[in-house]
User: What shape does this take?
Amino acid sequence: MAIIEQPPRQLELAPAGVVGPSQALGAYARPLRATGWRAWLFTVDHKKIGLMYGFTAFFFFIVGGVEALLIRLQLAQPNGNVLSADLYNQMFTMHATTMVFLFVMPMAAAFANYFVPLQIGARDVAFPRINAFGFWCFLFGGLFLYISPFTGGMADGGWFMYAPNSGPVFSPTNGIDFWVIALLITGIASLTSSINLITTVLNMRAPGMSLMKMPIFTWMVTVVQFLLLFAVPVITVALVLLNFQRLFDATFFDVEAGADPLLWQHLFWIFGHPEVYILILPSFGIVSEVLPVFSRKPLFGYPFVVFSGAAIGFMGWGVWAHHMFASGLGPISVAVFAATTMFIAVPTGVKIINWLATMWGGNLRFTAAMHFAVGLVVLFTIGGLSGVTHAIAPSDTQQTDTYYIVAHFHYVLFGGAVFGLFAGFFYWWPKMFGRLLNEAWGKVCFWVMVVGVNLTFGPMHIVGLQGQPRRMYLYPDDLGFSAWNLVETIGSFILAFGVLIFLVIAVMSFRGPRNAPLDPWDARSYEWMTTSPPKEHNFDAIPAVHSIDEFFHRKYEEDETTGELRKVATAEEILAEQEASADRHIHLPSPSYWPIVVAFGLPVIGLGLIYNFIVAGVGALITLVGLYGWTQEPSAHDPEDEDPSAGPSKELATVG
Amino acid sequence: MLTTGSKFFFAGTVLALVGMVVYGVGTSWQEYVGWVVLGSVATISAFLGGVTVAFRDANIDAPAVDAVSAADAEGRLRGASRGVPPSMWPAVGGFGLALLAIGLVLDWRLFLLGLVAVAAAGVEWVVQSWADRASDDPAYNERIRARLMHPIEFPVLAVLGGGLVVFGFSRVMLALSKEGSIWAFIGLGVIILIAATLFAVKPKLSKNLASGALVIGGVAILVAGIIGIAQGERSFAHGEKEEEDGTNQVGDKANAAAVIVSEGGTLTPSTLTLARSVVFNVIFENANPEGEQRLVIVGPERTTTNEDGAEVTEPEIFESVAISEGKRALVTFEIGTPGTYEMRTEGEGPEATGELIVP
Amino acid sequence: MTATTSRRLRLGAAVAGLGVLAAGCAKDAPQDTWDPAGPAAQQIDDLQKPIFAIAGVVGVVVFTMILVIVLKFRRRKDGDRVPRQIHGAPRLEIAWTLAPAVLLAAIAVPTVTTIFDLAEKPEEALTVNVIGQQWWWEFDYPSIFTDSGRPVVTSGEMVIPAGQWVTLNITSRDVIHSFWIPRLNGKKDAVPGRVHFLKLKADEPGTYWGQCTEFCGLSHANMRQRVVALSPDDWDRWVANQKLAANTPTDQLALEGEALFKGQCVRCHQVDGLTDDAGEPLVSRADEQLVSGAAPNLTHLMSRTTFGGVSFDLKRPECTNDSAFDEQFATGTAANCLNEADLERWLRNTPAMKPMYSQPTEDTGTLIRGMPALGLTEEQIDALVAYLVTLT
Assistant: This one.
């Protein structure tokens, strides 16, 4: 063939060589802003991603709850035969893993994703596509974990997965391999999300919002992101070591090869202890928002609450070996960790007292959200006090691995973290969906759950101190545990009923019209200066910040003579002011195909590692091609890509 | 970008690649001729496809380019020659081809390296020539080339560069003594801390200074790694660890089954009773001034095959390294058969014996 | 309901919880951690009870505060007044940060003292080596030798002299287990490759129960242990008995059982006194059968009262009578007290009674983790039982 050159293309460029990113290289246009399922699959909008996190996490809450009910059914009577030993061991492993990694962490991420940008006056997070990628990683990781029941058995080594029991000799099924890889994938979600949120909080705050004027929920979430940033790599290392031990015959935890099994314990708990603060701090943040609103007083000692949150985050790194008091560490290590553990009770106690001081002298309105918030204060105090008794190391050698510990962490996790999340549901539901959750039934739900929590986990203190160990698929009838265990089982079903009530309330809320008032609670913080639900671009004009509780200070002014506060503006008026001075050129990130593609490759790699390396290669190819596509797509919405025939119903980013 | 003709060739590439993989898997990669031929077909197809893309299918119906004026024609000429910057990839490709040939003869690793070089050169060369013809503005051409290739080039370079640094550091760790490696890690941590502090305190640090420091650091680690390879690894024989007296480490040392002291011809304790089938760590301490000693435990008889393939039945020996006075060494052992076994010292100084009872 | 009633309900629930906690102490619970029977457990108890009390007081104070707040500051009919917006009181906040810190520092002092006390090795003590494996405990007595010249090895029930310190050296043959006798001391993990120290002393003779308290796999729930503390005379009698080797039975059925045992069971289970055809002592080679490398020593099986990792009683229920403890234990399980039903079920199909991994897996080669179903006929089982009864 003859080689004839075509003349080089003449460019009609304005100033020399300015290339807009929308001059894409053909194949990689971004999807249009769509409706229907495509709007969710390719979205990068933090609110949609937050909602997806929330619904998925709640689904896994139900799954984990069913696992718990099965456990309780097996333990309702001595020598129970509802579950075999093998199935029981799988059940408690999966219950804990699901609740910690697939419910509480993602539900906190749901709130964080939805509300952090709203609370700081940003229109989205710093890296919207990475945000979407994080969600898909979480979803695929969770689904990957639940492939294991169909491939020979779920993981059965406990959520703490101690070596050498987790090795291939002692755990022959693939369940633990699925567990390890699922946690690696969801770990990627946590890590990317932490980098995203830290960057967002540090860089994208509204004008005038210094760090000490940020809403307290955003502060707690920021501390959590820093904890994640440093803790997730540690568990990743541990999981990779275990993965290599199981799949590639490494000897990291083989005693014959000279390994010390305590290596796993140290690595796991260096992650595991900050992990529990990761679980509780978002709920502390929610409660710190809810209590002031329903006491009509500002959070007492905001700087102290902020610093105690940061202190918990920092000191949390120095206490991990209190999970190992009976592991043979030696008296010096045990004494040191006992001391540090005792001192970490101080910042937590400070928070509780500050909350009480917030309510003191206030005008308390007991809405459903307030019920859950006060419930958290009571139940977390119980859990926290039993935690202090664990810090006494000799006493802990009697308590550890018994139901007394189970009681402690369920009080702080259910009574603490979960009650905080429920307070967040009731508080922020009107903002997210423009509808209110039924208040009366919400209070019923609260009381049923309180009874359920206390009936299920209260007696565990007793049987634990009476010597009932954990993680046992049965207990004999001659140890005196039988009566309380039956009570606990009944309590667990009451608790489940409470959750069911909530589900019904939630579904019912979508039946009615979207008619929630703009400011149903007379709230205080920044995110309430939006429509309900917020417009896609959040704020028409980003309000400037002059103080903490900016919204409250715009509504109320101090009367010069009496010193009392009187209302000078309603939420509607403030919003109208915003709309009147709306920004003319709002630029939102465009949807993208690639986050879900890249995330999809990861579980394929996982399957390949377990079964067939060619499949792993295919998965790696999907991920790499996806990453390449991600780099090639334009980083902004190209107006030429729009479909003008779609009409005005499609809300566009540009305003004015 | 994909012209019609090139699609034919690229399709051929894909088909040949798939064929190669199927053939290879089916024959467990043993039948070289088959998959090498298919792989070569794939490569040639890809090359031809790239050529067709670059020359736009040799379209002879392209309109001729008329110069508007002499000055314009001159500008076009200058622009045209300006628009083709020099490129190293043809050279890399040639070098790779040569490596391919040499590797076929000498070593399969050189062959692989040549293959990688040819593949990289092929991709880069094709993309470069496409970019050079995209417009007459060389800056624009470079930008779109970068847009396409940087997401591949930078990660690959990072993996290679980072990998080299990690490898170098690992060779350093292997060559250093146990204490030395502790100091090396501390040193590295301190350097990173200082660098990070400097960056935090003076964010406007000159780019040249920063990149200069990184380059020096990288080269230093590479050089150290090469020295480490030359030195060779320190001894890591299983079951032998030397320990300085007085260091108080957790793990084996704090949880050893026993501490056996050899002094003046006696072992203290001289009788140990340890359960069967348990991995035990025992610390041996030499308190004799005369010289180096090791502790030897003579275990049960084992039947093994030695290097010549013959079956040999002899007692399993567990022993420590030889240590001088005041030092401690570790012995790790597991004995599955009940019995009474001999413990003794070997080396300089008075010999001591004792008993290990396995119930 | 009114706000008052609902708030009262809430505090009532909290108080009731505490009351229940207190009431929970008076139960028939052999593993009760609040019922110490030895100085180590007593020391822990002396430390923890005051601290529990302090925690309880703090809890009551906080709940009372909440109740007061909830009642006093609840919204009245006039509704929406905005109260004084107090942002904080730094001096007060510093005070209530320091106060708990000081209290905790005070608690830390006796805590650290107790930690070091409990870690101190007693001067004159009996040493027992405790080895955990899936799913039973082995106890070796390195200072007590049988007539055949080997140390005494038992399993399941650790017999010790009452009123004397016992030093335990705890380790494991496979995964991590944990040795725990609540009424005598806290627990200590049995970690393979490491040896951990724990001390026990029982003030009075008696049986003290415990369970493995580190998840160790399938039958973790079926891995229990007991400490049996004997008075000085009983202890001497027990030691003298343990030193004897097993005698050749005289009964025909028992002889058949012995032959069966020598053919099959002795591959894993050691019985001192058995000889092979050449007259050499038979040594069990459990390391060639089991991943963990050992099976319970059965030389004096009938001197114990439980089997199968203390999961099943060797004695029939009517014979298990606390009042005649000393006699009960010192003489072990007499033939007329034997729980044949459970023992025969065990020999018939062991994994059905206690879940185990009786088949080798890819990573264990030919070794198994647990006792397999032996496929014995009823006559063989009867013979075996007759033989086992002679192992007093």
Residues 1-5, 12-25, 640-656 of chain A have pLDDT under 50 and may be disordered. Chain A has 19 helices and two strands. The interface with chain B takes residues 1-11, 13, 16-17, 19, 25-26, 255-258, 260, 262, 328-330, 333, 614, 627-628, 631-632 of chain A (CB under 8 Å).
